[in-house]
Structures are given as C-alpha cells and as structure tokens.
C-alpha cells in the first residue's frame, strides 16, 4: 500500500561553526574561547545563544525514505562524511528524484541552513532551490514556497502559517500519544560530536524524523489523503521496521507506553506485541 510518489521526511542537526564565526567577527582565539565569545556576542545581539543561521554547521542529516516498496531510515554524520559531502548527498537526492519533502520547522530552519551552507561550500543544488525562474513548471511546484505541498512543513501548516500559533514537535507528539524526544534535545548535539558519539547522534536525529513521520501520518488522515485502514497499515509497518533495528528499541519501548495515553493510539501495538 504505497502513496504513488516518493516521500522524504528529514531532519538536520547542527552546531556552531567556530571557523566561520571567527571570520565573521574577526576573532583570533582558541576554539573554546572563540565559542564562548560567539555565544556572548550573540546574546548581546539577540538575547539568545542560538547562532545566526549561516553559522550552523551541519553535523547530521537523517531521513525516512518511502518509495516503491522501500521504507528506510538513514543518517549521514560527520563521522563518515565532511559537511560538504553530507550536503551534496542530500541535495543530490533531488536531482535524481523529486520527493514530497516533509519536515518540522524546515521552512524557517533546516532548508535555510542547508542553503547557507551550500553557499559556503560552493555547492550547486538547482532542483531543491528552483522557484520557477528557469523552469516554469516549478513556479507552482517547488520546495521553497511555504504554501505549496512539495515541501510540507508540519509546524507551518498545523499553525495555519501563523507564527504566533507555532508549537514544539515534542509537545505535539506527546499529546498525540507518540514517544517524543526522550530527554534529549538539540542542545546535546555539540556534546555528542565532541565525544564522538556518532551513533547516538544519528539515533537522536532519526527519532525526530520518526516523530515527524507519525504526525505526518495523522495529518494525512486529517486531510483525508489516507483512510483509517491505510493509516493503521503504516503504523504497523513502522513498528515492524523498528522492531528489526535494535538502535530504536528505546523509541519503541516509549511508544508502547505513550500510545496508551490516547484512545486513538491505544491499539497501536496490539498487532505487534
């Protein structure tokens, strides 16, 4: 029971690019001192430690690919690839296929970060960033326009494109009976990298992808794009897939507990005890 078109649910993990930040602010310090200085400068500018988007170095991209019988999680981290190679692998997907792209906050964070970092590395990503200037067919069917379905940013569409109504992914999935972030957040990414915990980083990023996928399924049901039977099919397929991948045992275990919190999800595991 397939959708008839490829779907890519994705998430990006980042940390501050000390080299680029030092170049921006003309710092000549050791890395740790530069990082502290960048955080202080950012607090002075914006009242937050959260770096400017161009200074977010991509350390991991994870995704769930669904197409022609494939249902596969994947992660690319800087353990195996440079940031430039990760970006080339991700943007290369769109030159080969043009999937429906699904994210949470991808419009305001993930895709702008990818664009800035592609600029930084001199990467061409024509299909992903085409808006119809050269290909007229893409004018109303591209990944950049927030109102078009080629890229479904769930945070955006569920808020009615109203920033005042934006919600956190972790809170929405918990309300809906799904696992959530399990005590880890984006603030832990730099520590994962510093301690070379690449498997843990990939697993964390994939858990965000899985949570996004589960909300997307519910959104498809809400819109009538799948019916109850089809929704249950994908829930069972997701559970079956995760049962074959030990790194997601904790996600499954938490899902079994959290699903009991709502009447709609209470039966998720009855077919997969």
Automatic annotation (TrEMBL):
Keywords: Exonuclease, Hydrolase, Nuclease. The keyword Hydrolase applies. The keyword S-adenosyl-L-methionine does not apply. GO terms for molecular function: exonuclease activity; nucleic acid binding. Signal peptide: none annotated. This is 3'-5' exonuclease. It comes from the Bacteria. Pfam families: DNA_pol_B_exo2. Residues 48-256 form the Predicted 3'-5' exonuclease PolB-like domain.
């Amino acid at each position: 029971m397939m959708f008839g078109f490829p779907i890519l649910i994705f998430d990006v993990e980042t940390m501050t690019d000390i080299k680029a930040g030092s170049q921006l602010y003309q710092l000549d310090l050791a890395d740790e001192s530069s990082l502290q200085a960048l955080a202080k400068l950012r607090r002075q500018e914006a009242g937050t430690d959260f770096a400017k988007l161009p200074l977010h170095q991509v350390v991991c991209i994870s995704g769930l690919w669904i197409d022609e019988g494939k249902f596969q999680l994947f992660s690319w981290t800087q353990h195996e690839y440079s940031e430039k190679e990760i970006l080339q692998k991700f943007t290369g997907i769109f030159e080969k296929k043009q999937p429906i792209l699904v994210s949470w906050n991808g419009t305001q964070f993930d895709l702008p970060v990818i664009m800035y970092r592609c600029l930084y590395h001199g990467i061409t990503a024509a299909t992903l960033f085409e808006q119809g200037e050269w290909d007229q067919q893409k004018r109303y069917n591209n990944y950049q326009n927030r109102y078009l379905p080629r890229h479904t940013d769930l945070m955006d569409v569920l808020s009615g494109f109203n920033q005042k109504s934006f919600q956190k992914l972790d809170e929405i999935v918990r309300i809906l009976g799904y696992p959530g972030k399990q005590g880890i957040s984006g603030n832990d990414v730099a520590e994962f990298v510093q301690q070379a915990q690449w498997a843990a980083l990939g697993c964390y990023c994939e858990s965000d992808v899985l949570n996004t996928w589960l909300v997307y399924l519910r959104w498809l049901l809400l819109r009538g794009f799948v019916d109850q039977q089809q929704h249950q099919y994908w829930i069972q397929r997701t559970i079956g897939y995760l049962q074959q991948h030990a790194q997601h045992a904790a996600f499954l275990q938490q899902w079994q507990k959290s699903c009991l919190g709502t009447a709609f999800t209470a039966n998720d595991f009855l077919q997969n005890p």
